Amino acid sequence: MRIKEALKEKNGSYILEKLLNKDKAWLFLNDNLNVPNEYFVIQKKIKNGYPIEYIFEEVFFYGEKFYIKEGILIPRDDTELVVEKAIKVINEKCKMKNEKCLVVDCCTGCGVIAIEIAKWTNTKVVATDISELALEVARKNAKIHNVNIEFKRCDLFDVKGDILVANPPYVENFWKKPNKYEPDLAFFGGVDGLDIVRKIIKKAKNLNYKIAIIEIGYNQKENLIEFLNEIDCKYEFFKDLGGRIRGVKINFFSKK
C-alpha cells in the first residue's frame, strides 16, 4: 500500500505521522512511497477493538496531549464540558471568597480534569482514585504539564474541601463497553448507573462541601432528581453541545 491510499483510511494520517516521525505535509508530498509493515499491524489491532490511544500512549483532551496506557479510562470529548463548567464555577466561587478554594477531583483516572483545573484556576487541587495504576499515570501527566496536585489513593475521597468535581463510573451494568481493554471499574455504576454518583453526593454533603459538579449519563436525570429531592440542596443540570444532559451542579445548603 502507498501512502496516498493509507491517507484515505481512518486514522491513516495519524498513524503514519507517528511511525515515520513526519508531518502531514510531508506525507502528501511523498504519497507515492510505500507504508511500513508496522502500519498494517497497527490497523489490524484497531480493527480488532484495541484503542489507538493505548498504541501510542497518548490522548488529546481539552486541546492538549496527555499520557495514557492500557488499563486506564480514556478521556472522552464530552468530559470537556464538565471541565469548562467546573472552571467557571470555581473561578466565580473563589473570586467571591477572595482566597484559594480547595478542589477535589474524585475518580481522577489519568488526571485530565484535575490538571486542567490546576491550570485555569487559582486553587489547591487534590485528586483521588482507588486505582494505583491510575494515580501513577495521573502523577506522570501532572509532571508533564508542570502543575502541583496532591494525589491520594482512597475509595472515592476522604478530604474536606470547598468544591467537588467528579467523572465517576456511571454506565448502567447492562451496557456493553466500547472495548474490553478499559477497566470495568471505571465504567459501571450499578443497575441504573447511579450507585457511585449517589455515594459521592452523600459524602460531599456530609463533609460540608459547598458545591459538587458531577458528570452523568444523558438518560439519568429523572432518577437523580428523585434522589436529590431527598437531600437539602439546590441543583441544576447542564447539557453537552448536542443538547443532551452531561452533568449536574449541586449547591449544598450549610448545616445549621
Q: Name the average pLDDT.
A: 94
Tell me the total number of β-strands: 9
Oligomeric grouping of the chains = single chain
CATH-level-2 architecture of the largest domain: 3-Layer(aba) Sandwich
User: What is the domain tally?
Assistant: 2
Distance between the termini: 71 Å
What is the helix/strand order? HHHHHEEHEHEHEEHEHEE
Write down the CATH class of the largest domain.
Alpha Beta
Q: Give the DSSP E fraction (strand runs of 2 or more residues).
A: 15-25%
* Helix/strand/pairing category: alpha/beta
Biggest sheet: strands side by side, in what order?
5-4-3-6-7-9-8
In one word, what is the shape?
elongated
- Helix count equals 10
CATH superfamily of the largest domain: Vaccinia Virus protein VP39
What does it look like?
The chain is α/β, with parallel strands linked by helices and 256 residues long. It folds into two domains: 3-67, no CATH class; 79-252, Rossmann fold (3-Layer(aba) Sandwich). The chain has ten helices and nine strands. It has helices at 3-6, 12-20, 24-29, 37-47, 52-56, 79-97, 112-120, 132-144, 195-206, 221-228, and strands spanning 58-61, 64-67, 101-106, 123-129, 150-153, 163-166, 211-215, 233-239, 245-252. It has a seven-stranded mixed β-sheet, with helices on both faces. The protein has a two-stranded antiparallel ribbon with strand order 1-2.
